[in-house]
Amino acid sequence: MNEYIRKFKQGTQFVNIVSPVTQNELTDSLELSDEYLKKDTLKFVPASGAATRMFKDLYVYLNEQKETDFIKKFFDELEKFPFYHEIKKADFDRNRLGDRIEIINCILKDKLNYGQLPKALIKMHSYDDFYANPIDEHIYEGEQYLNPDHIGIHFTISKEHEDLFNDYVKKASQDKDHLDITYSFQKEETNTLAVDMDNEPVLTEDNQPLFRPGGHGALLENLNDLDADIVFIKNIDNVCHRSKVKDTIDSKKKLASIGLKIKKQIDAHIKGILNDQYDLDEVNDFLKNTLNIVYMNELTRDRALSFLNRPLRVCGMVKNQGEPGGGPFLVNNGDYTDLQIIEKSEIDLNQEEYKEIFNQSQYFNPVDLVCFIKDYKNEKFNLLDYVNNNRYFITEKSYKGKKIKAIEHPGLWNGAMHDWNSVFVEVPLTTFNPVKTVNDLLREGHLGKK
Length: 450
Prior knowledge:
Order of helices and strands: HEEHHHHEEHEHEEEHEHHEHEEEHEEEEE
Oligomer: single chain
């Protein structure tokens, strides 16, 4: 507990960014290959989020009954939502307050009960003879770029949604023997202490210290439990209509192809060093030009091995469109620089130098990763050994109406993968279609062909 208190007092630690990632640091290749399909592939989908935040604006309207641009758009384009067919009535008037409230209650409570469902089970896309939720879309996607003999998809879900999840997956995977869907929960032992604004532990009604879920970084434990050669990571709400999915499939194949090629090169360098058949200058060139690691001292055999023998991640990046969230930066780690995904809150924007670097950022992290988690001997890395534990987050929450502070583990694709080898690849903006609010379903990527 003392360690948590120390971190709260110390506050979020800023990362020493050097510059935003530009095209110079990106990796590209025109060589697409299906060779990665010979490996054991798996898709990892963080999916524990409830849909409550997705419908936040509708809840506010129920309470305040005030017209906003968001509400106007929602009702003006009501027919475009895939759940419209379940709530439509011949006689409702979308401009009348009473009917609007009835419609929202139908969606959130009475009929669809979306306010109580996980985001994974919300209907998001409409097709000629069926409607699809994110689970359906992740299965469909996986069938296009994972090993066709064994489509492995692992979801992390909330315990409260376990029965709903199992019932749906049983139905969705019927007659699909090649499909292997598994799930896990965020581990309770990864929960973290909450404190008040004076950094004193918050107590529950039982007079016990309050512990809360430790953010998506806690899912590193779940990822570490999986056994696969290559793991694709993508958030539950980042799916698109199947009429628009080609770019996504192609980019996944591209990330995997690039990653496998680099993984082979890494393994070859490691074996060369271990067999005393290597050229340190050649290894140093590979670190600089392929892995974007610039070591500031004279490279030794052991230091080269320590850089090479790490998990590898290939991260898709999209052009920055002003979305909230993190992005790719070149980071100074003391005696070397490398590429990292940094959240805005990890940057000291009070310093003009860092503020300017942040504002120059050209790319955004859409959470689109392909991870190689076995070493040159084909043995699994212990991913917990490659975390930068100083990259935790402190956030403000509330408990029983009072402000409290919570601590989150280093983010799954942030500090939890700080000591991985990282390669960044530009992917099309069409591959990034997150659904943070219900009106996001009106964006191009979620609508069928016109």
